Amino acid sequence: MRYNLMLAWHGLRRFPRSTVLAVLTVAMGLAATMTTLALLHQLTADPLPGRSSHLYLAWVDTVHAKPQQNQSLNEITVENYHRIKLGDARELLHDHRAAWQAAMASVFTELTGDGEQPRHARDYVLATTGEFMPLLGVSLRSGRGWTPAEDAAHTPLVVIDSEMAQHLYGTTDVLGRDLKLGHGVFRIIGVSVPFRPQPHFYELAAFGFGDRRRDEAFVPLSALLDAGVDLAGSDGCDEDAPKQKTLFGTDAIHCASLSYWVDLPDRRQAADFLAYLQHYAENQTSLAGYGKPAHAELTGVGTWLSKQNVVPDNVRLNAWLAGSFLLLCMANVAGLLAARFLRRGAEIGVRRALGAPRRAIFQQHVFEASMICLIGGALALPLTLFGLWTLRLQDSGFTDLARLDPAMFAALFLLALVVGVVTGWLPAWRASRVEPGLQVKSA
């Protein structure tokens, strides 16, 4: 094997122009493929590994309105994020049929620190209920979350993440300090580690991907509503709801504006919770006359992301196009290798006449093809990093996720090796079938 490796290396140096051309072709094909696959890998990754498999979005349709189609006649899609009304959320929280559960809505609002010259920021805040931390796996650096009793008492408390604390107060030692939200003053009782699931599966109405747009603080839902902060967004409102005071205001009582997530560790508990939800929907006698069947759904994280088409279609299309480009590059490299190997027919004939078995000839040329692709793989790494950098320059809401992780780095070289074997197999097989007598005579 060592002798065949040495011959393969020598073969590369004998034809430098075709070697460079083959290496560049492989590098460009691999770089284009890895750039798109790295982005697709990040977009389709599990947002909460080990936890999202037993998280479900619970939904019951209790809006006092006639059924509406998601796709209207003018092809405008009506938003449906399976949100529920505040009253339903309170009923479900009171019954507490899941291991952990929380109602939530991501709100874009102004945050103001304390002191004589307080700093300001406008960012996302998650209005939620007490069990959001164990439900979503939010980690604390210091302090605590709020209790159900404090939730019920509308106590103005807040858990702020360390980066926002640093921005507003210049330190993360902020326990006991005040944070103004709306017209309310909230006491900071906890500092969390920045929470960045990708995508933000639990609140797709606010945003999907992106590190710059995430929840910077967590606030009791009831206290935030008391402070006059609007939830700003709903899937629909009761037809008999009071008239809104503002054009874009959301009445949490009469509008479906809250996502309701539950933790159900196994399928039996999920089935029991769905039966409970369906029973809850069937008991909504106030829906009579709106032509709505009792409707409840329980949707897992993966199914939910698929329903919402979280991964853009153009990313999948680009991955297919890049894969096709790689196949084209492989075909070109296979042609180059076949031409190189056939030019060495006399040399191969002499080796065969001197007793070299076909297996050794085949091995030598597969090694040569694999070396070309491995060198191409090494060159593809900086090209891939350059491609990911150019993707991050685009502001498409998700392109800042385009990064090469260690798993994809290993996959790049594995792919390069596979490409080398695949492209070199046929030319190497043909070279090994050379008849030594004819080639020696022609030489």
Automatic annotation (TrEMBL):
Segments passing through the bilayer: 319-342, 366-389, 409-429
Signal peptide: none
Domain of life of the source: Bacteria
Segments forming domain MacB-like periplasmic core: 19-225
Transferase as UniProt keyword: no
Chief location bin: membrane
Topological relation to the membrane, as annotated: Multi-pass membrane protein
Gene Ontology cellular-component terms listed: plasma membrane
Compartment(s): Cell membrane
UniProt GO molecular function: transmembrane transporter activity
Domain annotation ABC3 transporter permease C-terminal: ranges: 322-436
Keywords: Cell membrane, Membrane, Transmembrane, Transmembrane helix
Keyword Transmembrane: yes
InterPro entries xref list: ABC3_permease_C, MacB_PCD, Macrolide_Exporter_MacB
Entry-linked PANTHER family: ABC-TYPE MACROLIDE FAMILY EXPORT SYSTEM PERMEASE COMPONENT 2, MEMBRANE COMPONENT OF TRANSPORTER-RELATED
Protein name per its UniProtKB record: Peptide ABC transporter permease
UniProt source species: Dyella japonica A8
Lineage: Bacteria, Pseudomonadati, Pseudomonadota, Gammaproteobacteria, Lysobacterales
